[in-house]
């Protein structure tokens, strides 16, 4: 088992105002961009695809113990909300997406977001499904597997993909990425849940 090296925090992480929502619109925009970049880097470093805010607010990602500064759940949610919007909407380029219905009966009662569910768990797209799809196609081409059938399990856990960034990927993210290829006419998925196979064209 390889140990993950410590995460290299950016200099802004040690700047106390980074943890306080800035009132100036331009400064706030810049602050949100920096938070988005930090969250993506953190998730990529830890090979994390979903982020539970309730758990994350207790981790170094949102809690700088040296500064005694942190983002609370509401502020963290605001950052993720900004990340879910496109640049045209003044957001962070759809680098996050809320996962509705996290299976639990929401422990965030009383927090805003009325009528939209709890908004406590999100996909963090340090690579969007479209970007993963491009990487998968590249790998299929370079390994001469066009026309062959692979199981989704092989793609995620197989020895042939061990050196690839998608090795060990969350199954849901893999299926989302493969569905992009299906829409592009580059792949076909068949088989039942948990037994999916995929053919690349």
From TrEMBL:
Q: Which GO terms describe its biological process?
A: macroautophagy; protein transport to vacuole involved in ubiquitin-dependent protein catabolic process via the multivesicular body sorting pathway
Q: Where in the cell is it found?
A: Cytoplasm
Instruction: List the GO molecular function terms.
Output: protein homodimerization activity; structural molecule activity
Highest taxon of the lineage = Eukaryota
Identify one Gene Ontology CC term for this UniProt entry: ESCRT II complex
Q: Which UniProt keywords apply?
A: Cytoplasm, Protein transport, Transport
Q: Which SUPFAM superfamilies match?
A: Winged helix' DNA-binding domain
| Location, primary (coarse class) | cytoplasm
| Recorded family membership | Belongs to the VPS25 family.
Q: What is this protein called?
A: Vacuolar protein-sorting-associated protein 25
């Amino acid at each position: 088992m390889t140990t993950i090296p410590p995460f290299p925090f950016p200099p802004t992480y040690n700047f106390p105002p980074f943890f306080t929502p800035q009132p100036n619109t331009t400064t706030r925009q810049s602050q949100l961009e920096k938070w988005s970049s930090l969250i993506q880097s953190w998730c990529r470093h830890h090979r994390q695809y979903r982020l539970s805010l309730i758990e994350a607010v207790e981790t170094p990602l949102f809690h700088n113990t040296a500064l005694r500064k942190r983002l609370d759940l509401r502020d963290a949610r605001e950052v993720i909300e900004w990340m879910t919007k496109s640049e045209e909407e003044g957001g962070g380029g759809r680098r996050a997406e809320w996962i509705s219905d996290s299976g639990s009966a929401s422990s965030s009662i009383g927090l805003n977001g009325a009528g939209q569910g709890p908004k406590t768990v999100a996909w963090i797209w340090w690579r969007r499904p479209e970007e993963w799809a491009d990487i998968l196609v590249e790998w299929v081409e370079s390994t001469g597997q066009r026309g062959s059938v692979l199981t989704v399990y092989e793609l995620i856990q197989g020895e042939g993909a061990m050196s690839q960034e998608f090795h060990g990927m969350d199954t849901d993210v893999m299926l989302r990425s493969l569905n992009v290829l299906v829409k592009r006419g580059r792949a076909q998925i068949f088989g039942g849940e948990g037994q999916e196979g995929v053919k690349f064209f």
